[in-house]
């Protein structure tokens, strides 16, 4: 069927938010299926995360051959990645290539932010308010605003006093040369800080790293891809993609079934050494099946990394501050760096532990902690994001009962499959909270979610329906499933942006589904096959609990 459902003048079938990996695939998938689509993007061009995060060293830590679209065989055959972990500029070039190749830019209005969206029950349409002052209407509203796109506020007292250069990794608007010869403070040691610090240290007169919580940083082991490696991937691309679709994290994984204490201490150490030579999410944290569920097993892997840090960092006091002793390996997002710990051996790099000396204020040219004053010319903020809910609340959604999304989620996020939420009909989230996006190769998760949502709205269109909404029961089931899935893991016990604990006052609920992208995909497929239990379509819903379906699926 190729006709649209929404024929009123000025109304489109779908409004999509964002022109990153999600928005572009949404535009392609939906317009190909005959829907009218209008996308709005706050930035001046395509790219999303990869448009904004241009800080030195920015690159993906999921290998590019996997962190790319799989929906078109010709696309994946004609694009060639230069490195295992492509830098930001190359990822952005790829996204631009996709936009041009499929002629997708014409579906978007750039430099335009969605600032409000109100459900109109009588017309069964979304009124979508733009920062241009205009209002556009659509049957469906789909967020591709991303999970890590709203920078976290930095509310250090005295920040406004600082008159030197101030830049954030997530809105980088200077060149690395601007930091040359300067005394630079970097605040934050998550994935962004870890990537930026070694490069800033190469040009700055001095770098002072202000660290609150030390992280596990494994060597990224990036390398150029040889023509032979590229060829071997391309020959097998469809099979590789299929393996990713049914994996845990959306990348090919080493099959690991034994537990850390199934082997001798010597054997365990030998295996950790071998895993340390691998890069990325198949490394040490994936060496045994129980590392993310058993704290004692995890300790063996954590302590292995602690020892690596002590081997690399020459000054024992600095090494001890860098050792991540406040959380288990993998329970909070691990980082993959290049020369990160080695950078602390440079004479122009020093470390301040904010746990020992918190920042008290800032002056025109200094950061003042409880024990010292650090004069600096520039401050780099690498303090992270208001993950998942930040971008969604930024849309200013008002649902069917007149409630704002932030009020509906006042006590914590509640979704159906991480894609819908009750009382917000015809609204969908791609890579949303309680989906596997948090702990997966997100491009693969995006494609799966877009396809599932497209199938659902096509299913409704085929029966002449115009109203799709998660039921309260369906949503409760999914919340229970996500909580039951995370409960036996160490994620459940660790403060991190995964749980919202990096943002003051945010309810502490785990914001992902950690049962694996393969299981999630099969669950979503099964739900569609069974007629979408937990979803009311034109007010009709199947009364079938999701829990037993989740249990049946391997
Ligand atoms: P992040 O992981 O949340 O790290 C933020 C850092 O800033 C933490 O060290 C945090 O300390 C510190 N911080 C926050 N507020 C602070 C404050 N008020 N005072 C002092 N320190 C403060 O953020 P991110 O590094 O931007 O990374 C976020 C996520 O983006 C990553 O986990 C990853 O998923 C994604 N990312 C991926 C890549 C990649 O693919 N390589 C690169 C960049 C980002 P605490 O830990 O104590 O809160």
UniProtKB/TrEMBL annotation:
InterPro entries: FAD-binding_Monooxygenases (IPR050775), FAD/NAD-bd_sf (IPR036188), FAD/NAD-binding_dom (IPR023753). It comes from the Bacteria. The keyword NADP applies. Its cofactor is FAD. Keywords: FAD, Flavoprotein, Monooxygenase, NADP, Oxidoreductase. GO terms for molecular function: oxidoreductase activity, acting on paired donors, with incorporation or reduction of molecular oxygen, NAD(P)H as one donor, and incorporation of one atom of oxygen. Residues 13-226 form the FAD/NAD(P)-binding domain. Belongs to the FAD-binding monooxygenase family. This is NAD(P)/FAD-dependent oxidoreductase. It comes from Antrihabitans stalactiti.
């Amino acid at each position: 069927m190729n006709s649209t459902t929404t024929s009123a003048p000025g109304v489109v079938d779908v409004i999509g938010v964002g022109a990153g990996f999600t928005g572009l695939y949404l535009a392609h998938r939906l317009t190909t299926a005959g829907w009218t689509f209008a996308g709005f993007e706050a930035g001046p061009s395509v790219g999303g995360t990869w448009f904004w995060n241009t800080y030195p060293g920015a690159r993906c830590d999921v290998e590019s051959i996997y962190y790319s679209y799989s929906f078109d065989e010709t696309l994946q055959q004609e694009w060639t990645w230069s490195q295992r972990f492509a830098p930001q500029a190359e990822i952005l070039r790829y996204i631009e290539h996709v936009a041009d190749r499929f002629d997708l830019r014409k579906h978007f209005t750039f430099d335009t932010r969605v600032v409000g969206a109100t459900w109109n029950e009588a017309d069964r349409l979304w009124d979508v308010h733009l920062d241009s002052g205009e209002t556009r209407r659509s049957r469906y509203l789909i967020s591709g605003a991303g999970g890590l796109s709203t920078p976290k506020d930095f509310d250090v007292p005295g920040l406004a006093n600082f008159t030197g250069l101030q830049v954030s990794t997530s809105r980088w608007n200077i060149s690395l040369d601007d930091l040359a010869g300067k005394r630079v403070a970097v605040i934050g040691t998550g994935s962004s800080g870890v990537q930026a610090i070694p490069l800033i240290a190469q040009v700055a007169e001095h770098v002072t790293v202000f660290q609150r919580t030390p992280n596990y940083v494994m060597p990224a082991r990036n390398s150029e891809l040889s023509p032979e490696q590229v060829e071997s991937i391309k020959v097998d691309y469809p099979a590789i993609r299929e393996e990713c679709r049914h994996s845990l994290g959306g990348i090919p994984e080493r099959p690991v079934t034994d537990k850390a204490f199934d082997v001798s201490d010597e054997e365990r150490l030998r295996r950790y050494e071998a895993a340390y030579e691998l890069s990325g999410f198949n490394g040490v944290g994936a060496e045994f099946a129980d590392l993310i569920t058993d704290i004692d097993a995890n300790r063996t892997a954590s302590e292995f990394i602690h020892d690596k840090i002590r081997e690399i960092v020459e000054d024992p006091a600095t090494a001890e501050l860098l050792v991540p002793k406040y959380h288990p390996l993998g329970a909070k997002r691990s980082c993959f760096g290049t020369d990160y710990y080695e950078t602390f051996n440079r004479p122009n790099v020093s470390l301040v532990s904010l746990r020992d000396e918190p920042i008290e204020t800032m002056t025109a040219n200094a950061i003042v902690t409880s024990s010292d004053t650090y004069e600096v010319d520039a401050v780099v903020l690498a303090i992270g994001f208001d993950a998942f809910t930040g971008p969604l609340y930024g849309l200013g959604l008002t649902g069917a009962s007149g409630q704002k999304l932030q009020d509906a989620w006042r006590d914590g996020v509640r979704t159906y499959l991480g894609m819908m939420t009750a009382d917000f009909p015809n609204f969908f989230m791609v890579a949303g909270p309680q989906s596997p996006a948090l702990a997966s190769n997100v491009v693969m998760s995006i494609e799966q979610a877009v396809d599932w949502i497209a199938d659902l709205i096509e299913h409704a269109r085929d029966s002449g329906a115009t109203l799709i909404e998660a039921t309260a029961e369906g949503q409760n089931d999914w919340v229970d499933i996500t909580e039951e899935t995370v409960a036996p893991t160490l994620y459940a016990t660790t403060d991190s942006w995964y749980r919202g604990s990096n943002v003051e006052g945010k309810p502490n609920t785990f914001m992902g589904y950690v049962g694996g992208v393969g299981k999630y995909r099969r669950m979503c497929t099964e739900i569609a096959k069974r007629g979408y239990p937990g979803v009311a379509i034109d007010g009709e819903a199947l009364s079938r609990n999701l829990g037993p379906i989740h249990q049946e699926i391997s």
